[in-house]
Design brief:
The chain is of the alpha+beta class. It contains five helices and six strands, in the order H-H-E-E-H-E-E-E-E-H-H. It folds into two domains: 49 residues, no CATH class; 105 residues, Sufe protein. Chain: A (Alpha-Beta Complex). The longest helix is centred in the C-terminal third of the chain and has 21 residues.
Length: 189
């Protein structure tokens, strides 16, 4: 059975598609308006990159973006306290070497323990060595072997006791930072 063009089904489809050209035209016009929009009335793009929140420079080099975020006094005090905590004391004389406390890699489970030896000179960490490393199983040893060299390099490169943790070695990173911080605290007296 062949359907005629005037069947009810064809009529519904035509009614549904009737506004399609208008919708497509409106969408295209809206996209063009967005592409040509400029907040100061200048030609070309300016404003804020909505996806990344970054400021985009105008053709003359000025920024049309928002001002930087306001930092509260409490946040500033917290950042200053953290900077003082990780700061390395400037000592007179030759570089000094101190040994940190022995720290358990995780206090709730016997993964192992470590202790670092730190050499400080000129107000920065110049060398870090493992004074003691004892792991209790093969997986803990594997994690320590790949994470500790990276942590030691990070300490010497930044010159302070603040380290970014190593992915999949969170407990080892935390134990390393605690031992390193205890050595720095000994220098402060």
């Amino acid at each position: 059975m062949k359907r005629s063009p005037s069947s009810p089904r064809v009529g519904r489809i035509r009614r549904f598609l009737r506004p399609a050209p208008y919708v497509a035209t409106a969408a295209a016009a809206g996209m063009l308006a967005l592409l040509w929009y400029s907040p100061e009335g200048q030609e070309g793009g300016g404003g804020i990159d909505v996806l990344n929140g970054a400021s985009i420079a105008n053709p003359d080099g000025s920024s049309a973006g928002a001002s930087p975020p306001v930092t509260s006094n409490a946040q500033l005090r917290k950042e200053e306290a953290e900077a003082r905590r990780y700061a390395i004391p400037i000592l007179d004389g030759p570089p000094r070497t101190v040994v940190g406390d022995t720290e358990k890699i995780w206090r709730k489970h016997p993964f192992g323990e470590l202790r670092v030896q730190v050499t400080v000179g000129g107000g920065r960490i110049t060398d870090v060595k493992m004074q003691h490393l004892d792991t209790y199983d093969g997986r803990s040893e594997e994690i320590a072997n790949f994470s500790l060299p990276a942590l030691m390099l990070q300490s010497v490169t930044t010159g302070n006791a603040k380290v970014d943790g190593i992915s999949s070695a969170t407990y080892t990173s935390q134990a390393y930072e605690r031992s390193l911080q205890s050595a720095i605290d000994q220098l402060r007296g």
